[in-house]
Structures are given as C-alpha cells and as structure tokens.
Amino acid sequence: MLILLPPSEGKSAPRRGKPLDPTTLDFPGLTDAREQILAALIELCEGDPDVAAKTLGIGSTQLDLVDLNRSLRTSPTARADQVYSGVLYDALDIATLSTAARRRATARLAVTSSLFGLVRPSDRIPAYRLSGDATLPGLGPVAGVWREHLGAEATAALGRGLLVDLRSGMYGAFWRPTPDVKVATVRVLHEHQGQRKVVSHFNKATKGRIVRALLESGANPGTPAKLAEALRDLGWTVEECAPGKAGVQLDVVVSEV
Asked: Which region ranges are annotated with the description Disordered (predicted)?
C-alpha cells in the first residue's frame, strides 16, 4: 500500500540541521527534476523580490518567504514529517505513533511536493514556499515537470499494492495513475442535521486520523473494498462509490471532528 498525502502550505522551518542534499532523498529517479526546479526557484528568488513574490503568488507582506527560498541550499533541514504542518499533519502526528506504526509510515507514506516531487516522512528537507500551480521562469509549470517524472517512481514504489490517493486536485495533476493501478480516493463528508457537505477542516483532520489509525492497526488492504472494510473495523462510517476514472471513491461520513 502506498498512501499519497498532499503537502501543507504552512511549514515549520528547522532551526538546526544539515543543509539539503538532494541525493539522500528517497525516490532517487527524481533527483534531476528536483535539481532543475530547485535551481529555477533559487534563481527567481535571487532576483527582484517583488517579481519573485508575484510569480509565486506571495503577498507583499510575505517577502520573508522569498528569502526562505533563496537560501534553500544552505538552510537547515529536518525530517519532512516535522517540516510539514497544518491540520492533516497535526491529526496524523507521526512523532507520537508507536514504533511499529512509525516504521509503516516510513514505508507506506509519501508526500507530494512541488519542489521535491515525492518525499518520505524521514527525508530531510528545508522549509520552502512553492505552490503546486506555480510556473517558474525558464522551466514552466512545476506540475508539467512532475507529470514527466512521477509516474515511474510512484509505480515502482507501489508495486501491485493499493494506492490510497489523498492528494488535493492541484497535486493530483502531478501524476494520474494508469487504469491498471488499484486506486482508492477518500472524501470526507460532514453530516449535520441530515445534510452532508465537504468542509475543508473536517476533510483534512479526518484524513490525518484515518492514516494514523491505519498505521497503528497494521492493516494493509490490497483493494478499495478491503480498505473500506478496514476503516469500518476501525470505527468509521464508510460508503463505497462506483468505480470511476480516478479509481474507487470512499465517502467517510463524520458528524464531528
């Protein structure tokens, strides 16, 4: 099983640690693409900060993020699961998992990154700012770069297992699995007074809790139906939708976060 997570927009900048070494990151087939994007991003941020901010969709009061990108090769790094922050990662809380569950996280989780393509929780990275819909001068849309490279690495990591795709639409555009890949996507619906709707906070927090529960349980479902069964065993209300182009969607219905 391979669980693909979205990155967080907010990141916790490490205060100490070795500088970035792209050759130490997992998914080594992505090293060249990582270097291309890294070089283009740094070159952009070494120029006019206002131009860089506009290109990256950063407000005029956030020029410190341009500075952050300018120093990517020398900034301290930390484990990716410590750098990515936000609702999903707070709910997942990898640092407090059991030893066995942390081993499973290292083997089964991958974060989709506009800068690094895919990273494992244990990969050491710096904090950065680069949205998945960004277009870098001289390189083009980062999504287009990753569409050329992610497929082979993700497919090799997945093998014949189940892909649990928790990426948002923006990051889902980096790689579309081929029809022969078994894919389960998860949608979280908040049910209140008989009505259901998607609420961002509930969606992110519940996905974090789902991943945490799966890792702790040791469940390793091989099909969307087996995943739905595993989640029900863990206490979730799950409805399985008909297969579509993106795989089988599982609706997880919650009444409170």
From this structure: 1-24
